[in-house]
Design brief:
Elements: H1 7-37, H2 41-65, H3 70-97, H4 104-124, E1 132-134, H5 138-146, H6 148-152, H7 155-158, H8 174-189, E2 194-196, H9 206-224, H10 226-251, E3 272-274, E4 278-283, E5 286-291, E6 295-297
Antiparallel strand pairs: 1-2, 3-6, 4-5
């Protein structure tokens, strides 16, 4: 008879499961950079998408197993900075931006905005149940940029025709449009535009069923149309957030949150608030705890001693 596995060991293995998906995301992010350095830019975009799938699964596995932790949150943010900030920027660097002198600054700007986006998320929304994101999520921005090159090489991009035989997209050089897309995605990551969160997959609600359909569509697109599917869908998500924010802005209903870039100013006229300790009293033979009301104690007025002028020699 085989010995029973201690419950603590089972718990440790369950905790390692979501972190395994997070490290899988890191693996695909590094693999994307390696593939781009070897000139396989389309494959690199697919690896970033695979990293995005791992990123979507790690949080859901952690919630399902009840093994979420502060360590997992920090690990996820650090990995996202590489997989969705650095890796897409390096794909574009190896594809285009290493051809001229200062074009690499576009890669720096995108990666910097992704890191700031993740830092703001940790401060404002990490560990909380959310229905929208404050700014474009870094996974969506990173996957949109990473899949752009593969889409730009497809007939859907190069042979799109308008009435009269005039081409629409092919007349826009993809390497020029790439710089515009990089800047647009970077600015949206640190913007105030709210983006809807992808619903959690379940069969108990309409929102959960929609989340399952989205995940199924992503897997089918990855298998059958990896080059033509992801960039248009992700771009539609990006533009949907902008359009929705514009409409809600007209209606003055845009969700807002405190920005971490704004520092709180101290009020020079503020008064210190001193909370006095609790006191017990006996009422009707029973003890009751009551807190004395807070009293505002004005700050003492500093005494200014007149300066004495010294005689000069």
């Amino acid at each position: 008879m085989s010995p029973m596995i201690p419950r603590r060991e089972i718990r440790r293995q369950v905790i390692a499961l979501p972190n395994g998906f997070t490290l899988g995301n890191l693996f695909f992010g590094i693999f994307a950079i390696v593939a781009a350095s070897r000139g396989r830019y389309s494959d690199a975009g697919v690896y970033v998408v695979l990293g995005g799938i791992c990123d979507a699964l790690d949080g859901r596995v952690a919630r399902f197993t009840g093994t979420g932790s502060r360590f997992g949150e920090e690990l996820d943010s650090l990995v996202d900075a590489i997989s969705f900030g650095l890796a897409p920027a390096m794909i574009m660097y190896f594809a285009v931006l290493n051809k001229e002198g200062w074009d690499w600054v576009f890669a720096f700007f995108f990666a910097a905005c992704a890191v700031m986006r993740l830092a703001r998320f940790n401060v404002e929304q990490a560990g909380k149940k959310k229905t929208y994101f404050h700014g474009l999520p870094s996974p969506a921005a990173g996957m949109t940029l990473a899949t752009y090159y593969a889409f730009s090489q497809t007939p859907l991009y190069n042979e799109t025709m308008l009435l009269g035989g005039q081409r629409v997209l092919a007349d826009w050089p993809w390497h020029v449009m790439m710089r515009v897309i990089m800047v647009m995605l970077a600015l949206l990551m640190i913007s105030e535009v709210p983006y809807p969160a992808v619903p959690t997959v379940n069969l108990r609600s309409v929102r959960g069923i929609i989340g399952g359909l989205i995940l199924l569509a992503a897997l089918l697109g990855l298998i059958f149309l990896p080059r033509e599917f992801f960039f248009p869908v992700l771009l539609a998500y990006v533009l949907f957030g902008v359009a929705k924010a514009a409409v809600l802005g007209v209606l003055e209903r845009v969700p807002t949150g405190a920005s971490i870039f704004d520092e709180e100013e101290e009020d020079p006229d503020a008064e210190d608030e001193i909370a006095l300790p609790r006191h017990e009293e006996v009422v009707g033979g029973r003890r009751r705890r009551r807190r004395r009301r807070k009293q505002r104690v004005p700050l003492p007025t500093p005494t200014i001693t007149p300066a004495v002028e010294e005689d000069g020699e």
